Amino acid sequence: MDHDIAWPGSVRPGGRTARVRESVLEVAGDLLADRGFAHLDLAEVAARAGVGKTTVYRRWRTPAGLVGDLLVDMAEQSLPRADTGSLIEDLMANARLVAKTLTDGRQSNLFRAVIAAATCDDATAAALRTFYDTRLTEWTPCVEAAVVRGEVPAGTDARAVLSAVSAPLYYRLLASGDPIDDEAAEQAAKAAAVAAAAGTFVTKQAQRA
Amino acid sequence: MDHDIAWPGSVRPGGRTARVRESVLEVAGDLLADRGFAHLDLAEVAARAGVGKTTVYRRWRTPAGLVGDLLVDMAEQSLPRADTGSLIEDLMANARLVAKTLTDGRQSNLFRAVIAAATCDDATAAALRTFYDTRLTEWTPCVEAAVVRGEVPAGTDARAVLSAVSAPLYYRLLASGDPIDDEAAEQAAKAAAVAAAAGTFVTKQAQRA
To answer: Looking at residue A24, which CATH number applies to its domain?
Structure first.
């Protein structure tokens, strides 16, 4: 059936479009997690999602286009930032969220597949950077509030603090293979908070100002 | 010419074997950096290195076997640890070394290719973990000496401290795309040193002891 043709009595296009996107992205995520980017085939995604091939090719064009949209969706679906009133607690919540994602079977495989794809595909690399931009920006107010509360100095680079929380967990996933457990998450959050309080993440630009 | 056959007057086998390995690994590294793991072909490596195909297949068997040996060689060729007498200076040297590697065109591509390969190939993942094991172990005495000097508390997990230095630089390379510059290297080293001094990397096990 060609889902591109609206039929009498069908739901409004907006709703259908959203449902098509949801099905396609779910299948794309499953295939990526299972077999990686190199084997992501738009025709197979269309068939498994029960969506017309034409729709998938017209809307997403390439595997990289599909992964890019999946990353947009993942950023949109991600949980909102914490707001506990304390930087260390906010960073702990962030670290636990990242650790949970990177230890979930499907999500962990999905991230590894997308990060691997980004190493050899510029469009995917750009989409991945946008994903992390969105997530880092979502959590930026935690650091800004800590500046207002006087927990960390003015001029602290929120993006650097939040990257410092995620980075050791990604390093375990992609490089050292060390376990991503609760102790690792706690250490990552505490190290970032302690260093931030000591002024380590005040940018050189802010120091000069 | 079949290099498997020793000819009269040729150098002793040990020297030739070492030279063959060096040529093969250099070509393998070039090809990986240029085109990634998926396109690494043993026959092409043999041809470009001017080495018999049989030698290459017999010694390295698979592309993953070749990458594994390349990582062993990279770990062996890596610079020795710093020994400045101060933890922050040692970590700064470590961070600058990692940053230099990850911003060098060939090395950066090579690491990205190998990390990407490790996400979908278990043998490469194991070889990559061994590489980081070797490097982290090489630098462990810097943290142990800092414990002796009283710069960081006893029970500090050297591997966690050193991972904390590398991690933000790898996160920039693979995830956020933020620049890996001198400020990033300095921040990574300082954040790890400050957190280590505050006891953040004392393991729970050591805390209980």
So the answer is: 1.10.10.60
> What are the C-alpha distances in Å from A11 to residues A7, A23, A60, A120, A202?
9, 16, 22, 40, 53
Nearest Cα to Cα of residue B98 among A167, A132, A166: A167
Range of the domain at B107: 80-208
Domain-embedded: residue A9: no
pLDDT in tens, A45-76: 999 999 999 999 999 999 999 999 999 999 98
**Residue B67 at interface with chain A, using a CB cutoff of 8 Å:** no
- Residue B176: list chain A partners with CB under 8 A: 129, 132-133, 136, 159, 163
Domain match, A61 and A88 both: no
Domain count, chain A: 2
ipTM: 0.90
> Can you tell me the distance from the alpha carbon of B164 to that of B91, in angstroms, rounded to the nearest whole number?
10
Instruction: Name chain A contacts of B164, Cβ cutoff 8 Å.
Output: 168, 191
Same-domain check for residues A104 and A191? yes
SS3 A149: coil
Q: Specify the DSSP class assigned to residue B44.
A: H
CB A101 within 8 A of CB A112: no
pTM for this predicted structure: 0.91
d(CA B15, CA B20) in angstroms, rounded, equals 9
